[in-house]
Specification:
65% of the residues lie in helices and 10% in strands. The protein is of the alpha+beta class.
């Protein structure tokens, strides 16, 4: 959006310059006390066209250079001794855009054509014709305009190169850090999670083979091990390839709640408001908040019930997880790694998180994440 506003401002500025130059040329031409003959009217039209053509100098610098040059030659031939101001602006724009060779060739052609145009206007003295041409287009003006355009073009190119170098360096460092984290996670967690998953599956298999009832807790451990392995693989893939969309988000919150029920927790999910698309970072963060909250309830809260509420608002997404566990207002929560991780995720997105015991007992995790639907 900022690029669009900048483009509008540039367009308005270009038109203001074009109208100003056209008005200056017309006023200068009118001061010469020309009559209202067809030739003179044609000269006034060329003065206006040369100035107004500058409105397109950013988009088409070479055609504008040609148009302003032809207009200058034309109104000189019509007898208008008016400086080629519009052509100087066109020279500046063309050199700034990098068309140096074409600009030099066009300017040399102008230097040769203007004396001929002055002779065509009715001047019979060659010296006077050349003097009039010099007055219309001083070589020093061309040099100054070209040098200014070239200097600005070089400065812009250096600035663009410096910005591109900084972005590439930052991107390379981020890639290296992601790969380092992926290696650390793979080396430290993959083996342990695989052992837990295999042992749980073996225990379930042995119990079923003996005809024994498989404890719900063991089934929950088996499913958690499978899910942890899937999550770890997805995380490692996302770290190794930042263009891959992580697979877990709002659409998978119901699975978390259902899995919590398999552990004996009476968990419910409520979704309010009109559902709409949210940024991928918000999508992932909601999933992680619900996942971490339900995990903490199962591990530490000694709760019988838990409720997950997601509320879609026009500008924000609100999440609330309540339980009826043993936490009381008198017991301050110990900020573990999971809670700190949730807070960092929410803060990074410009949101707010509150995690504290409830007055009636139990614990509440509330988060509000801004949703910029125009981006």
């Amino acid at each position: 959006m900022s690029t669009g506003r900048s483009g509008v401002r540039s367009g308005v500025r270009d038109w203001a310059i074009a109208v100003g130059v056209a008005a200056t040329l017309l006023v200068t031409g009118l001061s010469g006390q020309h009559s209202a003959t067809d030739l003179d009217l044609f000269g006034y039209a060329l003065l206006a066209a040369g100035g107004l053509g500058l409105a397109a100098r950013r988009r088409a610098p070479v055609p504008v250079l040609a148009v302003t040059g032809l207009c200058a030659v034309g109104y000189q031939a019509a007898g208008f001794d008016v400086p080629a101001v519009a052509y100087l602006f066109a020279v500046y724009a063309a050199v700034r855009a990098g068309h140096r060779t074409i600009t030099v060739a066009a300017s040399m052609t102008m230097l040769a054509a203007l004396p001929l145009a002055a002779l065509a206007s009715g001047l019979h003295d060659t010296g006077e014709a050349f003097a009039q041409a010099r007055g219309a287009l001083e070589l020093a003006w061309l040099i100054a305009a070209g040098a200014a355009g070239e200097a600005l073009r070089q400065a812009e190119r250096r600035a663009d190169e410096a910005e591109r170098t900084r972005e590439e360096t930052a991107r390379r460092r981020a890639d290296e850090e992601r790969l380092r984290i992926a290696r650390e996670l793979h080396d430290s967690l993959t083996h342990q999670i695989s052992v837990i998953k295999v042992q749980a599956e073996v225990a379930v298999h042995v119990a079923r083979k003996r005809g024994e009832q498989v404890p719900e807790a063991l089934l929950a451990i088996q499913e958690a091990g499978r899910e942890a392995a899937r999550e770890l693989r997805a995380t490692l893939e996302a770290l190794r390839d930042d263009d891959m969309t992580p697979p877990r988000g709002l659409d998978h919150v119901a699975e978390l709640v259902e899995r919590a029920r398999t552990t004996g927790l009476d968990a419910t999910l409520t979704i309010e408001g009109q559902r709409h698309d949210v940024p991928a970072a918000v999508d992932r963060t909601v999933y992680r908040i619900v996942q971490e909250s339900l995990t903490n309830i199962a591990r530490h809260a000694a709760a019988a019930t838990a409720s997950v509420r997601i509320d879609y608002g026009p500008d924000a997404l609100a999440i609330r997880i309540d339980d009826d566990g043993k936490a009381t207002p008198d017991t301050a929560p110990v900020p573990g790694v999971g809670l700190l991780g949730m807070r960092e995720r929410v803060t990074a997105l410009g949101g707010h998180l509150r995690a504290a015991p409830r007055g009636e007992g139990g614990f509440t995790v509330q988060a509000e994440l801004p949703v910029d639907r125009t981006s």
